[in-house]
């Protein structure tokens, strides 16, 4: 069992993750585009790729993609990118992969639902870890007193650490509340103290803007900032709605979760009016079980009633998520070829680029 920062991939897992053929790995190594390491498994040394190794590889693709974007001002797939003479040694990567790192569409995102237990913290944690694997620099914000995002990211001493409470109420500089979780992944942790934030926050001037102002101070250091929120129509959540560009509403495919969706959408609309904001909203169906008629019906209704908001990716119900939660690691550590890993890859690309 490895925590996220120590995760290593076998060559075939790596190839699967970045959508290349396994036999390209020695070529990439030779060209210095991929660093592998030896790890002792039983009594053999196996070639592995560390989290830093995969991040470095992905960053090189991003650089090629950015250069391509600048030259053509349209978003390209890596398949379309013709290497320049200085990129000649990158040709095998640029031509052989379908993996498409692009400029991110929404920098500040939140996972939200006033209903509890729909999978917000689980998806937030898995999403930020997946995006970190893709080479991006991410700040995760835990805005829930339950601290489940923090625990999912394997931080177990959050009760001793400052949280967003200290930033918003006691004017602690946000930099002092940030901890590093793994290469490319920082966190402002959450703990029980956050459950007491509503009354003091209510008494502050410009209360709903304080979080936006705090985020602005560190925003330039990150490619992506993602918050997990508490299951309530709280002032803290409202503050995050003011700060966010994209709201990811996680909806379980069951009747009560579906019933609550009208309230969630109404809350977002009210907030948009009050704060003169236009938010992008994505509804992510979670806990989908194709064997259950009720799950199929709720998914069908979500797609009809919220057609323009429903994500293309549907997250299936699978034990891998519970296992990853239990082990406080990524689903790629649990089952890299499983349905959960596939769903999360698709969701991550959709939330980052579409
Ligand atoms: N697609 C899934 N399949 C199976 N289990 C899942 C799935 N998504 C989440 N879970 C599990 O459901 C449980 C609740 O998830 P989670 O804590 O993320 O919900 P939440 O919306 O954050 O809850 P809260 O509203 O209390 O913050 C966790 O044990 C998690 O592992
Ligand atoms: Mg939660």
Can you tell me about this structure?
The protein has 354 residues and is α/β, with parallel strands linked by helices. It folds into two domains: 4-96, Orthogonal Bundle (Multidrug-efflux Transporter Regulator, Chain: A, Domain 2); 108-353, P-loop containing nucleotide triphosphate hydrolases (Rossmann fold). The chain contains 15 helices and ten strands. The strands form two sheets. It has a seven-stranded mixed β-sheet, with helices on both faces. Helix 5 crosses helix 15 and helix 9 packs across helix 10 (235-243). The protein binds adenosine-5'-triphosphate (ATP) and magnesium ion. Residues 120-121, 144, 146, 148, 228 line the site of magnesium ion (MG).
Largest sheet: 7 strands, mixed
CATH topology of the largest domain: Rossmann fold
Q: Which CATH architecture of the largest domain? A: 3-Layer(aba) Sandwich
Structural class: alpha/beta
* Oligomeric state: single chain
Spatial order of the strands forming the largest sheet: 6-7-5-8-4-9-10
Count of helical stretches? 15
Helix content: 40-55%
N- to C-terminal separation? 33 Å
Present as ligands are: adenosine-5'-triphosphate, magnesium ion
Q: What number of domains?
A: 2
Annotation, overall tally of beta strands: 10
State the fourth-level CATH superfamily of the largest domain: P-loop containing nucleotide triphosphate hydrolases
Low-confidence stretches: 73-98
Q: Secondary-structure element order, as H and E?
A: EHHEEHHEHEHHEEHHEHEHEHHHH
Rg over C-alpha atoms, rounded to the nearest angstrom: 21 Å
